[in-house]
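Please, structure for the following, as tokens.
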Amino acid sequence: MMRTKKTFEKALLLVDHGSRLEEANRVLDEMAARLQSELPGLYVQAAHMERAEPSVEQAFARCAERGVEEIVVFPYFLGPGKHCNEDIPELCRAACEHHPNLSYRITEPLGVHEKIIEVIRERTGL
């Protein structure tokens, strides 16, 4: 018996730079897995700009395979910069050329947030 993949209307795509070090890439995979368990109605996927897979293009293809119509792209970066302002939007535009039925929007990166302050305080013991 052939199993079909679960379909989703919306996806959350976490995008980081990507690394040659597998343990660095696993951090984003772990975050995606945790978010998937917290948001079961969404398809949550990790993607890397370069140096690792899945690429943004591959992630868009996976979303399309699951019937996703809209992708919310979250740059997993501390602040805005060239990657957030230029590279990620260009990678998403290029991916949509191969998947014209997908729409996407890109959020702000992590930035300054009270919860991040809490994490810093917890990790430093201050």
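The mean pLDDT is 95. The longest helix spans residues 22-38.
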